[in-house]
Specification:
This protein is mostly beta strands and 585 residues long. The chain folds into 4 domains: 4-164, Ribonuclease Inhibitor (Leucine-rich repeat, LRR (right-handed beta-alpha superhelix)), CATH 3.80.10.10; 169-328, Alpha-Beta Horseshoe (Leucine-rich repeat, LRR (right-handed beta-alpha superhelix)); 405-510, no CATH class; 513-583, Immunoglobulin-like (Sandwich), CATH 2.60.40. The protein is built from 2 helices and 52 strands. The strands form 11 sheets. Strands 16, 17, 19, 20, 22, 24, 26, 28, 30, 32, 34 and 36 form a 12-stranded mixed sheet that branches. Strands 1, 2, 3, 5, 6, 8, 10 and 12 form an 8-stranded mixed sheet that branches. It has a 7-stranded mixed sheet with strand order 4-7-9-11-13-15-14, with no helix packed on it. The longest helix has 13 residues, at 4-16.
């Protein structure tokens, strides 16, 4: 016979000098006369390899002579579509340990698996194929396994020992593209282990509703080969714990809904969490991996025990109702998030603290309504806030960014602890019911505001004063219903008689002046001056030390009860120069 490797190298070189072939990704292939495909070579990185069953929508039927010769593959799955494995196809693959031969393979060529020194198992899904010679497995020490119902098997095959593989599995399943999808469970419950392979093929999908409503399952071990958990896969089971393997990319809608799960950790491989994925489950804390991009609608809604969540750094949107009705007390929304959708955290009554990432541009309607929020900074990236966004919270104060032009309807409705708010001069419109039934006492409205919606300041029993920096805005209906504030306006602004007539509130000209006559200057080692006004008005005295870069500091607030007030500054000697101003308190 001579040196088989020398002879085969010679044949291989002759083959490589043959006709041209087409290249696709890791494979070079030829298109046969019947519009099928034969793989002619492989230039991938090795490791675990599954030969495709189609290329360009044409069926792969052959692995050509010497196609994967001396490559670094460690495991190989030959799909059911393949009918022939050519001469020397896997010759001298020194790292190859396991091969799965599809049920369609009818012939295997000479030296196909020769000199695969680490090959331990060859698994056949179909009947015994025809071998090109006795050298197919030359110098190998593997064993052969075949499935029940397949034909023409004996105690040996190609010189290797052969045996029936008949491991029962308590599952129903389907086979597609050399993978297994679990479709149902036929076992007795308790602790369930889903195997990595069934009929020699990897289990990659837990199908829709596969274990749904099986109350007997207490915990489950999922295979390392898994890539997809489909909709309702474990919905309404008795699962108390589950580990999602690395490699899973999708968790489908209601996949674990209504399960008494405790903690859940989502690996970085997962990119999508479907709608209602953990709806009304028992999850107490959740860690979402950095691969997660999308959190589906109501994904964790009504998880009443969910007190802690870590949101991965690549999530772009918090979907509708994603964490509504949970027991979260604190949430950090990462900078990757650009959109917080409607009702995302509604009815999270324990939620007192939220850090919103610096790239959020939109906060949806009722996103944080009826939570326990105490303070809130809306980042400057936000350009839109929906209706009812923070209604019914415990907010005492809030920072509204200058990127907003509109305060949406009912945005802070029923925020009973809100005693003050700063409205930036970017705001043009204050919507309906924005501050309805809040605890506001004093409000300053900048000159930019031209419209105030209906019921905007209704039922604010503590509201004493509203200061307007510009002309009287247009009004809706019942803006001040069951409230009795005094409105103060500046000299030179217009529309206030009509404003008073339409709203029913008292309007007062705010026109204090600093007198430079008697009393102005240093008296009793304090610098002071008289402040006068035609009517009883509230004022604030402020000071700064540099008009080129003014930082005004509040010194005192008071009410000119008799039309005048004497102000003195005991700290004036601490500054080389000081400027004073009167403003709205």
């Amino acid at each position: 016979m001579g040196n088989p490797r020398y002879n085969l190298f010679t044949v291989l070189l002759l083959l490589l000098l043959g006709g041209a072939a087409t290249v696709r990704a890791q494979y070079t292939y030829a298109t046969n006369a019947d519009s099928t495909i034969t793989i002619t070579s492989y230039d991938g990185v090795g490791g675990a390899v599954t030969i495709p069953d189609e290329i360009n929508n044409l069926s792969v039927v052959g692995i050509g002579n010497w196609a994967l010769y001396s490559t670094g593959v460690s495991t190989v799955i030959v799909p059911d579509s393949v009918t022939n494995i050519g001469d020397g196809a896997f010759f001298d693959c020194e790292f190859l340990t396991n091969v799965v031969i599809g049920e369609g393979v009818a012939s295997i060529g000479d030296w196909a698996f020769a000199f695969c020194s680490r090959l331990t198992t060859v698994n056949f899904r179909g009947g015994s194929p025809i071998l090109g010679s006795t050298n197919v497995f030359y110098d190998d020490s593997a064993t052969v396994d075949y499935l029940p119902g397949t034909t023409n098997w004996g105690p040996t095959f190609g010189g290797l020992p052969a045996s029936l593989w008949n491991v029962p599995v308590p599952f129903t399943y389907t086979t597609s593209s050399s993978t297994i999808t679990i479709t149902g469970y036929t076992g007795t419950g308790g602790a369930v282990t889903v195997p990595n392979t069934i009929n020699f093929l990897p289990v990659t999908i837990i199908g829709s509703g596969a274990f749904q409503r099986d109350a007997g399952i207490s915990n489950i071990t999922l295979p390392e080969t898994l890539v997809d958990i489909e909709a309702a896969a474990f919905a309404a089971t008795s699962l108390s714990s589950v580990t999602i393997p690395d490699g899973v990319t999708n968790i489908g809608g209601t996949a674990f809904g209504w399960c008494p799960l405790n903690a859940i950790s989502i690996p970085d491989s997962v990119t999508t969490i479907g709608d209602d994925a953990f709806y009304e489950s028992g999850v107490t804390n959740a860690v979402l991996g950095n691969g997660v991009i999308s959190i589906g609608e109501q994904a964790f809604a009504f998880c009443a025990n969910l007190s802690s969540v870590t949101i991965g750094s690549n999530v772009t949107s918090i979907s509708i109702g994603a964490f509504s009705g949970t027991d979260l007390s604190s949430v950090t929304i990462p900078n990757s998030v650009t959109n917080i959708e409607d009702t995302a955290f509604i009815n999270c009554y324990s939620l007192t603290n939220v850090t919103i990432g610096s790239n959020v541009t939109s906060i949806g309607g009722s996103a944080f309504a009826y939570t326990g929020l105490l303070t809130l900074t809306i980042p400057k990236s936000v350009t839109n806030v929906g209706t009812f966004a923070f209604s019914g919270t415990d907010l005492a104060n809030v920072t509204i960014p200058s990127t907003l032009t509109n305060i949406s309807d009912y945005m802070f409705e029923w925020c009973g602890n809100m005693t003050q708010v700063t409205i930036p001069d970017s705001i043009v419109s204050i919507g309906d019911g924005v501050f309805l039934s809040t605890g506001l006492t004093i409000v300053t409205i900048p000159s930019s505001v031209t419209n105030i919606g209906g019921y905007a300041f209704s039922q604010c029993g503590n509201l004493r004063s509203i200061f307007f920096g510009g002309n009287a805005p247009r009004l809706g209906a019942f803006e001040f219903f069951d409230s009795n504030p005094t409105v103060y306006y500046l000299p030179g602004t217009t529309g206030w008689d009509a404003f008073s007539s339409n709203s029913g509130v008292q309007v007062v000209l705010w026109n204090p002046t600093i007198q430079t006559g008697v009393g102005f200057g240093v008296q009793g080692n304090q610098f002071g001056f008289n402040i006068t006004s035609a009517t009883k008005i509230p004022i604030a005295v402020e000071a700064c030390n540099d008009l080129s870069n003014p930082v005004w500091m509040l010194l005192q607030t008071t009410v000119l009860t008799n039309g005048s007030y004497y102000f003195s500054d005991p700290s004036w000697t601490n500054f080389p120069i000081r400027f004073y101003s009167l403003g709205f308190p």
